[in-house]
Amino acid sequence: MKSTLGTTLLAVTFLAAPAAAQDRPPIDQRTLADYAPEPYVTLQHAPWTEKAVLYQINTRQFTREGTFRAAMAELPRLKELGVDILWLMPIQTIGEQNRKGTLGSPYSVKDYTAVNPEFGTEADLHAFIDAAHAMGFKVILDWVANHSAWDNAWVTEHPEWYERDWKGDFHPTPWWDWSDIIDLDYDQPGVRKAMTEALAYWVRKFDIDGYRADVAGYVPIDFWEQARADLNALKPVFMLAEWKDPELTRKAFDAVYAWDWHQTAKRVAKGEADATAFYGYYSENESAWPKEAMRMTYIANHDSNAWEGTQYENFGAALPAMIALSFTGEGLPTIYNGQEACNRKRLEFFERDPIDWSQAKGCELTDLFRNLIAFRDANPALHNAPWGARMIKVENDQPKQVLSWVRQKDGNKVLGLFNFSDQPVNVGFSSTLQNGTYRDFATGLPIEVDSETTVALAPWHYRLMATAIHGEQE
Predict the structure, then answer these.
(1) Which of 142, 174, 146, 179 has the alpha carbon at shortest distance from 161?
(2) Using CA atoms, how far apart are residues 141 and 366, in angstroms rounded to an integer?
């Protein structure tokens, strides 16, 4: 049976494994140089990931037609929105045996190197990727390495590549209701070779720019580390893991999910926790993760929208503020298709259920996303790890209501104030960290903040201020 990555957090300092004892001098003979830390993260992020914002496309629901060709027509709109990396949900053929619903789950892969005809042809996919690249986008594919469909050709050609249950039968991932798939066995070298070749296939033939790895922690980390090295030998790629563990960011993945951020944000929005609930996440982020690691902060994705609730169900009146925090606090921001059109529907997972883009007319979130991306681009302190700045807590006199912080780098300083409560508040400060001359994100007007300043915040309201906004320097 395959061995998977444990989730225990690593030592705070994230040092590389020490040299073998026989290679180190006795303790009383060591110098300070013998104790110097070694780099923990050894992968190199592609330069184009510094300011990147992800946009997830559920091809089946993205357009009325549900095809690559129809999606291609939306690229100018996405360019104007300001997103950078387009993440396509799985585009391979879907298994028919034990299929869920009429069309099945995209995460039940029948052939790792075949295009799902529901979305179009290989030529259509090529055209979409070529058009995206011509407009400056990068394109990544969702990848399902942990399991395949029951009727994948590997099942009959290489039955030894699959795990068996206590009866000796193929089985879905244990405990989950994933009856339309069966688990691969990564103790088998053949699985690793075939999966690596399939990953390389899409880079070579379609020039894709990386992958989002489904349930990445269910697959051994040494596979991902070797696969990343093999893909980087073809071109610089971006890798996102659906998992939470610092070790994944060492050699394999640029980014991992910020599940804890998402769950904390939902609890705060529903009044189940106050603003201080975010302290745990941001403390761990700074103290227990390497500074090079990107963590994907998100309001919605295909899973949360389908199974947890819409952005409005989950966040209610707090939605704009939570979106703003996801884009300006530490993290890699993500938009799930339809969010920017005020989509209020849980999209079907196994059936056609196109997004109603007519909702976009008058949707306040369209401009919010566009303006936040522009604000983020203009302020280097807000860029992705490792380029952006750490968040530093600003002490205020209403901590249970107001989350306040500063991010500053090379003369660029951003102050964020978030009233995460349903009551108005006047907030003051007990430090000098917040002091400065800024321009306001919402109005563009100059504002001076010092130790005597008091800021009025309406319920679920936020203020963002920066020394540079939309390229203008103070």
Answers:
(1) 146
(2) 25
> 233-246 burial, b for 16+ CB within 10 Å, e for fewer?
eeeebbbbbbbbbb
Q: Who contacts 105 (Cβ-Cβ below 8 Å, separation ≥6)?
A: 94, 99, 180, 181, 349, 350
User: What's the token pair of residue 114?
Assistant: 């075949």
d(CA 261, CA 92): 31
CA angle 183, 212, 191 (to 5 degrees): 35
* Complete domains list, the chain, with CATH: 47-344+352-382 (3.20.20.80), 392-473 (2.60.40.1180)
Cβ atoms 432, 306 nearer than 8 A: no
Q: Would you tell me how many other CB atoms lie within 10 Å of the CB of residue 185?
A: 14
Beta-carbon contacts of 338 under 8 Å, excluding residues fewer than 6 positions away, are 61, 345, 347, 355, 357
Q: What is the pTM of this model?
A: 0.94
Cis-peptide into 18, omega within 30 deg: no
Q: What is the pLDDT of residues 118-170, one digit of tens each?
A: 999 999 999 999 999 999 999 999 999 999 999 999 999 999 999 999 999 99
Cβ-based burial of 213 (10 A; exposed 0-12, middle 13-18, buried ≥19): buried
End-to-end CA distance of the chain: 60
